[in-house]
Amino acid sequence: MNKNTISNQELESKILSGERIDSTEARHLFGWDILTLGRLADERREQIRPGNEVGFILDRIINFTNRCEAECRFCAFHSKAGQREVVELGKEEILGKVAELVRNGGTQVMLQGGLHPDYNLATYVQLIRSVKHAFPQVYLHSFSPAEAVHMAAKSGRTIDQVIAILKDAGLDSMPGASDLLVDRIRSKASPNKLTTEQWREVMDALHRHGLKSSATMTYGMGETLEERIEHLGVVRDIQDKSGIIRAFIPWSFSPSMTEMDDIPPATGVDYLKIVAIARIFLDNVVHIQAGWLTEGMKLAQVALAMGANDMGGVLMEEQVVRATGVETRTNRDELIDLIRNAGKVPVQRDSEYKVIRGF
Hints:
By secondary structure, this protein is an alpha/beta fold.
């Protein structure tokens, strides 16, 4: 054994003691059995967020357009993918959807769309103001780093200026939709979308202007295990510098109906290992979401024993994943039962992860 190589026993002791592991050690964990990984990840979760509470939020994703200049090969939602009908929701239609969410006790709206060729910064500002004027109590966790870069390009503004203007209009936070932060993969799967460095720039701007975010991970697009860790490394680095990442949300790439449908889908074991290793490696991120939307309810429930401690949102009306043929849906009562049956305590939370009520 190389003198610089840590043994399995030493690595396990390091994890149990709460020490930070490095990228080489994280890569090594992919070879470990799933039960050991789950046990260590749950211990790490207990160190970071003690207790058995698992949160969820009542929210709604409103995909207001699917016209998109990026035309990513891994996306089945944009209007050219599979010749999908163009979607361009008007103001009243969007406000009607928000009203329905509010009537059902929802608290958060996620406005998300493609990189529409005719939408500029003013389009997004007006959208924010319209929703906030009609529903000032609603929390807008909306858009994405890719949309922020798009707004900057269309308006001749810097990314920093765009974030400042969105905040002034009423944006509360921005999801850190990350796909996979590895430019080798991005050049193949999404060559017209933002780069890893531009994603970092958006996150830095959010931090400067006091806005929180999240980070996702879409794996299974032909990346190596080292590249999966590379992605996690970018997330951990940003969180070290800013502390703005409230949650990490991994999900598997759904190849059906995309231009990358020759890639075999990831397995459930792949997903659980990603959750567990992310929990161990991302020692500075408090919440890791179980991805019921892409992985299904049963696998998401198992993830609660593998380091995950949040179920995300009920997600009324999500369309992007559904475009690939994945049709998982849920409701509040189902999430409560699922969490309880996992031996956890279900709590409804707000966008800042503060408990609204327990069950």
